[in-house]
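User: Round two. Same drill as before: sequence, then structure, for each protein.

Assistant: Same drill it is. First protein:
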Amino acid sequence: MQQPARTTTRIQRKNTAVILEAALEVFSAHGFRGATVDQIAQAAGLSKPNLLYYFPSKEAIHTALLDGLMETWLDPLRALDEDGDPLAEILGYVRRKLEMSRDYPRESRLFANEIIQGAPRIGPALSGELKQLVDEKAEIIHRWIADGKIAPVNPHHLIFSIWALTQHYADFDVQVHAVLGGPEIDPYPEAGAYLDTLFTRMLTP
């Protein structure tokens, strides 16, 4: 006789969310290697045995975070519309990526730490889902260039530069604020205006 599928209770869903939120804070601050299950349990307000009931290891928690993050990370690029105005579409992508750095700085640092370590847990996603999406959008940019709608650029390197110029504000937040003069300064309005000008000048035929 087939056993019915297990359903999670409200308390289980709540505790899972609490653990993932605590793990995000710990991993983004200490990296994967520097984080411990004890730190995550303490940040979650749970005992270590209770945490291990939900996730059997630090690796399992980290993988769960990265799996969810990959979907969030790809959404702004997925929104690039072939039928829209090319310059407006690219500037919209830049703005969405900058907004993600502003709104999800811990997630950005978690992703950056994973990449710096050689992507041991999300390598297949990078060479699979991410590459497929980037190649697809690069082909759209190629067509816009061929039609004379934007200036000639290397589409892959254009996307890389957008990542670098937007994620910098999350991944190097401390450096940005130190140079600008303090943690109370909001760099994002001027960063947005600067990047709009930069990419508009570069891409206008």
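Second protein:
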Amino acid sequence: MKILVGIKRVVDYNVRVRVLPDGSGVDTDGVKMSVNPFDEIALEEALRIKEAGNAEEVVVVSAGGDECQQQLRTGLAMGADRAIQIRTDGPIQPLAAARALLKIVEREEPGLVILGKQAIDDDNNQTGQMLAALWDRPQATFASKVVLDGDKATVTREVDAGLETIEVDLPAVITTDLRLNEPRFVKLPDIMKAKRKPLDTVEFGELGVETGPDLQIGSHSPPPQRQKGIMVDSAEALVKELKNRGLL
């Protein structure tokens, strides 16, 4: 079985995001970029499935400019066998990303597609669900445990009420939650080996998919500064202050 894993280049989660002075976007000049953390978890799970003997190949795919090759090489260093870059310089929204991934899925014919449940830059949490609908295959989102058994997968999902366990037929789309696993540390020898692994490039226009955007972002703004707190002497004073501020 072949597993396809989607990864996205995002601002590293340790970096404090800054909005450009004109509000046109986020300042990425000189900012550390990394693989989306949820996508790292997705790749780690794919690699564990392969190491358990339930898959023969893991392919990572990302859409973006040539700068995203850095994240694809990171995926190869973690242990992926091949990488595919969908080259585009424009912004890609979830539906366009799902349509582009569908074209790659049709070419590669994987038995399983694993994605992070969301990207930490826009937090849309849409691409996996859209891909499953377009592909007309089952989906299991927010996975905290995945067990493969032949042509079926048993997935434990994190839902509002607790945990839900479902069984889906393969091929399927799975999106990963934080508690599924802990991604491995990439060692220097693995980084060197990754440079020799194949990285194929496909132009977005060759896929016959419209990039959009379907949504226009007017402006960006930082969150308002947090007001300084006050000290109160008793619970009664706390309740009174909360009522004065319209919070109770």
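The first strand starts at residue 2 and ends at 6.

User: Perfect.
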